[in-house]
Amino acid sequence: MKAGKFSSYQTSEDFILDKEFTHWVLHPNKELDQFWGSFVLKYPEKGALIRDAVLIVKSLQPIGQDVPQQKLDTIFYRVLKSDRKIVIHWGAGLKYVASIVALIGVVGLIYLAVQTKNQFPLAVATKNVEKGKVILANGTTQEFSTENTVLRQTSSGKLTINADTVSVDLDQTSTTLNQIIIPNGKRSDIILADGTHIWLNSGSQLSYPTKFKKSSREVYLLGEALFEVKANPDQPFNVITKDVKIKVLGTVFNVSSYAEDNTVQTVLLKGKVTAGRNKLFTATIDLNPGERLTYNKSNEQLSRDKVDVQLYTSWINGYLVFKDTPISEVYMKLKRYYNQDITVENGLEKITFSGKLDLKDNLKEVLENIAFASSVNIQEINGSYLIKK
Amino acid sequence: MGDNDALSLIYSENSKKLYLFGSKLTPNHTIIEDSIQDLFSDLVRNRRKLGDTDNINFYLLKSFKRKLLRQLQKEKRYELNDKHENFVFDITYSIENEIINKDSTTTRLHQLHKALNELSPRQKEAIYLRFTEELEYAEIAEILEMSIEACRNLIYRAIKSLKESIQGNFSVILVYLQTILKKNI
After folding, report:
1. In Å, how far is A137's CA from the nearest CA of chain B?
2. Contact (CB<8Å) B33/A64
């Protein structure tokens, strides 16, 4: 530290507003005491200024106030609990540890309860279903056979399907789930009570409570859906699939988690999401717009890459876009969309397709387009299609 | 250092400070506690790499205040734009102890005490962040949602008024004269 700068100071304010000076007043040590001692000896005319400055800086300090340490320990325990990620630090030497260790017994029981309760609520049952349906929390079922079904859930408990009111659930305290099932060949457009917009794709299921919990919004997905989540920082939105859990505050993203696919893919369009495996004690990955998170079911690995988001979201507008996509994947999507059988002969694994398919066209037209672009042949047998070389 | 080790270290170093800062913004301790919990839950949830943040203390104070204000607004239905005006920065300065404990009755101390209590809530908050939390002007400006220049000015004026309070009556008279002159011109 150099005395030169300080010797030019003309007022107490100059000293008070200097961080090096206040650092000495607030955290004095031998070295600094010596420096300032000799400074005053050298520049006695600054003595009065420094005296006032010290008095003022000291007077600005708040009175010592008690903080309930026990309260703080409890808060930290709750922080860990809400994350369900408790690690015991034996001998970590930190104050809160003792209280956490004392609670471990209870916690163990809580976790057992939580884990058994957290059974994934959706089963594969869309295969041979012709009609779409909603299984309401009260057990009743409503069926519909429209191509693109419009479902609206209001916070007052009212549910409409294609503008017909089907249910007024007055018991809003119930956290039991409503389940929407969309068969192959159909789609739906859903708005939940919080304003979140969900496009649920063919052969997919979605479960949601009539009214969300105060602290978080949780929906369960099997299959594919595009989410436009209504922002609410106080009530994060969670999409839970069998393998992957995606946490968001408010954003647009597409999730594909079909049981028959080997991967679960989350593609982010806007905002920010955090995703990870749907398991306790696992790490999560943050996604930025334009990125895709892929969970590989066979090796249980998560990976992240940049993608063209259009390829993953065009389905809500009634067309599919592909770019160098293996034709087996293309046909898998078409099977779900048209609910018709398509078989691909062995040996065509390396053939890819790039282009845009209009889902308003009939399946035969669509298949002919692919056949032309990717140089394969189609054979129709009793309403099923076989793709050959 | 593992995730939880890092977290517990940050918590043990900062939670008390946040609690104290919060208690100056609101007497509602439930809201202070909820905001602390919320803040740290976010840290865990978002796996923020706090080591990369230049000043953890600043980051926590800023995020904590934002959460606290949001909670208070919900509770009391404050309009967003008068959030500054509605809050009192409730601080008791240690000088009070000095006056009582040491039975010191010097007018200087009393005048300083009086001047401290005459500071605006915003000045008190800025001074707290500068002289107790030892943040930089840029950081304080961000927490108070004002420009760095305005923030520097706010603190400078506060300090100046405190100094004048202890520098005899001459400057007081001078200020008084100045205001009278201004009014008459």
Report:
1. 30
2. no
